[in-house]
Design brief:
Low-confidence stretches: 17-27, 38-42, 320-327
Mean pLDDT: 80
Oligomer: single chain
Strand content: under 5%
Shape: globular
Number of domains: 2
Radius of gyration: 34 Å
CATH class of the largest domain: Mainly Alpha
CATH superfamily of the largest domain: MetI-like
Length: 327
Amino acid sequence: MTNPFNPADGEQIGARLYPSVSGAAAGTAAPTPSPRVIPATRRKGFLYWARDTGWRHLIGLVMLVFAAFPLLYVLSASLNPSGTLVGSNDLFRTIDFGNYVRLFQLPQQPFAAWFVNTMVIGLVAAAGTVFLGALAAYAFSRMRFTGRRVGLLTLLLVQMFPQLLGVVAIFLLLTGIGEIFPAIGIGTQAGLVLVYLGGALGVNTYLMYGFFNTVPVSIDEAAKIDGASHARIFFTIILRLVAPILAVVGLLSFIASTSEFVIASIVLTDPQTQTLAVGLYQFVSQETSRNWTIFSAGAVLAALPVVALFLYLQKYIIGGLTAGSVK
């Protein structure tokens, strides 16, 4: 029987359990492992690439052409002095900026006034929608009161009916209000902004409510311990944490208000107060004087503010998401 405290017996036990280690320790060469045979990789040809990822690139290219062709066609038509869309079939065959110049020289169609009106109405409606929607979403998310669940359900159900169904009611309502308060009645831009605020408040409130719920309530509780009120918590803490959804709602509201046609054409009766969506329709609505190229030039200029606002808010959306992921 071996003694575990005897060094000689310990060497014998180690030699039986780990022969390679004991042999190397004894000065004998340990057996080298056989080299691993790595099979030669198959050469990836064009067919393999096309089957693996090439078809995805092909679909993306087709979708890019499908989305970019209308934009290029409208841009080409705006640079065509013929006045019709038939001569614009050959993209950028003729390049002339005369349509953009004539767009600002027509006294019956004040494009500059339409552009300013659209920017004012769009920005005011977007800011009001974001502010009112954030207030309502904060109340539904942080406070518990009677009728809270009914209010949320009502906001969701009201959005099932499009705003177009209430055009007659909106016209009669603004006509009646205009008799008492002419500043917000029919034919005023303030009345149109109020209509936009009422129509967009429901869906935006419900959208913000879901985002507000992602902010931990412990932040509010810690601020309350320090003596902060609901207003201070909302304006100094919560609004910074929910900046991405505020940017998204503001962008969507601006796009919706600047491109809306039906309600704006009913409320705004004076050509000097109309928006671009209503004013540009005059270039193609008359049977005897249709000018599609000037209409295309106006459409190109009308799209520039939307693109600029999207590029401006994009960094805030990405920055807010990346900053919020490490809080």
